Amino acid sequence: MLAIKNISKTFNTGTVNEKKALDNLSLTLNDGDFVTVIGGNGAGKSTLLNMIAGVFPIDCGHIYLDDKDVSLLPEHKRATFIGRVFQDPLMGTAADMAIYENLALAARRGKSRTLAWGASVKENAEYKDKLAGLGLGLEDRLTSKVGLLSGGQRQALTLLMATLKKPDLLLLDEHTAALDPLTAKKVLDLTEKLVNEHNLTTLMITHNMKDAIRIGNRLIMMYNGKIIFDVEGEEKKKLSVELLHEKFRQAAGEEFSDDRSVLI
Ligand SMILES: Nc1ncnc2c1ncn2[C@@H]1O[C@H](COP(=O)(O)OP(=O)(O)O)[C@@H](O)[C@H]1O
Ligand SMILES: [Mg+2]
């Protein structure tokens, strides 16, 4: 499904701010893998997802998706088969457009622009159905502007949009971190439901170690642009927050105390 081979990324090369964000990182996902990604601030988690999505060019190495080398493919082309949800609820949807218009855009991702774009009656019925599945009452608000929705509703809608046309890969970057705990739980439950329903290959960054242990079939921990721990299946189920802290302490040494607060 996804194969990353020896990618590196340095920002601000040759300046005092030079930072190696990814350091010769390799990772292979199997079809249907649901991987949680943890690590302290600046570990390179977001950069990893950005490299996969094509936000910045990689310095070296290759990224393969379904055996195709996508390393040089621009971001908008990769967006036709990669779904993304970010931390900021404002980023995934168009505020000035109605709920049904946002969904119609998502449904047409990667299709020719000459296709009619307004949503058909049949499509609207389908959207209503899918929105009802979110359990947020959005099915009765198809024509509401998305800008009027709460952060949690927007994240739920973004998730729906990202998975409307089954993506080859779903990338989630702390997509519940900006929400209150109750809403975060709802959006996380919805995430699991959608991922399981469509058997989506997924990378989910989270700061919450309990969630990282509970959710998905595989967990990776990053530190200094590298994967320092990769565990799956039964072994993952046996993890504890204490054990993850211990792994992190081993890798980070003295810096651990600074990062402890963000790894709850
Ligand atoms: N666009 C950018 N320009 C310059 N430096 C960046 C950029 N994106 C990330 N970095 C740096 O790369 C390192 C890894 O960042 P990031 O991937 O955002 O970490 P994480 O998501 O694990 O907190 C950090 O030191 C960060 O400051
Ligand atoms: Mg990040």
From TrEMBL:
Predominant subcellular localization, coarse grouping: membrane
Protein topology in the membrane: Peripheral membrane protein
Any Gene Ontology CC annotation: plasma membrane
UniProt keyword Nucleotide-binding present: yes
Domain ABC transporter: 2-249
Entry-linked Gene3D superfamilies: P-loop containing nucleotide triphosphate hydrolases
Keyword Cell membrane carried by entry: yes
Subcellular location: Cell membrane
Cited SUPFAM superfamilies: P-loop containing nucleoside triphosphate hydrolases
UniProt xrefs under InterPro entries: AAA+_ATPase, ABC_transporter-like_ATP-bd, ABC_transporter-like_CS, ABC_transporter_ATP-bind, P-loop_NTPase
GO molecular function: ATP binding; ATP hydrolysis activity
Domain of life: Bacteria
Protein name per the record: ABC transporter ATP-binding protein
Originating organism: Ileibacterium valens
Species classification: Bacteria, Bacillati, Bacillota, Erysipelotrichia, Erysipelotrichales
